[in-house]
Write a structure and sequence with these properties.
The protein has 252 residues and is an alpha/beta fold. It has a single domain (5-251), classed as TIM Barrel (Alpha-Beta Barrel), CATH 3.20.20.70. Helices cover 45% and strands 14% of the residues. It is built from twelve helices and eight strands. It has helices spanning 16-32, 47-54, 80-84, 95-101, 105-117, 130-134, 138-149, 155-158, 179-197, 200-205, 219-223, 240-251; strands at 5-9, 37-41, 60-63, 89-92, 121-126, 162-165, 207-210, 230-233. The protein has an eight-stranded parallel sheet with strand order 7-6-5-4-3-2-1-8. Helix 2 links the parallel strand 2 and strand 3 (60-63). Helix 1 (16-32) packs parallel to helix 2 (47-54). The radius of gyration is 17 Å and the shape is globular. The two termini are 14 Å apart. 44% of the residues are buried.
Length: 252
């Protein structure tokens, strides 16, 4: 049995004080939902105050990115050691990072290895663009992202990863994939590559989330699918009632 997992990716939203206030507001209800692994990923500047609020609550804290080098002349970057002081999780390879900041499967692979070597849990994002979707290249693209992004890992390392399938054409557009469609992609283009890279036990044990316009109204459709173990939630994670509804849907 794979434990349900719901993470909120706040992206570039909320000041440190706004972030602290938002977590304080959702915390009483969020704490009750212990059967779901709950993770909040605020901007870097809000990690410290949010960490203080979450201490001892059982709710995880994640960063939205890190650099693969341990330290050095990388202006504007943040290392795994810096993240590790406060967080257990880190989002890697998000489509916005790939599209806007030039991240590739190679750099994602470096970041995954650094994350794992620092005993952090990577939430690795994969997904196809609208053009790739319309050209029926979803299987090709997602399979490549999986094989190249996770190459060189041991089965033990592979078992510690969380994957987020995020079709790029659905992120922030209000146009989510269908539950059935996402389930098929995960089965064919995520779990099969995991088995090829590692083994069947890892392929069936890794939790795979759906992301891309997940909201309070459609979450249950995704969580009802056999291969979907939760969600990486964007905009809806900034709304207390919506995020709580999504986490509750994962409980069911």
């Amino acid at each position: 049995m794979r434990k349900p997992f719901v993470a909120g990716n706040w992206k570039m939203n909320k000041t440190a004080e706004e972030a602290r206030s938002l977590v304080v507001e959702m915390l009483p209800e969020l704490q009750k939902l212990e059967s779901v692994e709950r993770v909040i990923c605020p901007p870097f500047t809000a990690i410290m105050p949010v960490s203080a609020v979450l201490a001892g609550t059982g709710i995880g804290l994640g960063a939205q990115n890190l650099h693969w080098e341990g330290s050095g002349a990388y202006t504007g970057e943040i290392s795994a050691a810096m993240v590790k002081e406060f967080c257990k999780y880190v989002i890697l390879g998000h489509s916005e990072r790939r599209a806007m900041f030039g991240e590739t499967d190679i750099t994602v692979n470096k970041k995954v290895k650094t994350t794992l070597s620092n005993m952090l849990v990577p939430i690795v994002c994969v997904g196809e663009t609208l053009a790739e979707f319309e050209a029926q290249k979803t299987t090709e693209v997602v399979t490549r992202q999986m094989l190249e992004g996770l190459q060189g890992l041991t089965p033990e390392e592979g078992a510690r990863i969380v994957i987020a399938y995020e079709p790029v054409w659905a992120i922030g557009t209000g146009k989510a994939a269908s539950g059935e469609g996402a389930n098929r992609v995960i089965s064919e283009s995520i779990r099969q590559p995991l088995e090829k890279l590692f083994n069947q036990a890892v392929a069936q044990g890794v939790r795979v989330l759906y992301g891309g316009s997940v909201n309070a109204a459609n979450a249950a459709e995704f969580f009802g699918q056999t291969e979907i173990d939760g969600a990486l939630v964007g905009g809806a994670s900034l709304k207390v009632a919506d995020f709580l509804t999504i986490v509750k849907a994962a409980v069911k």
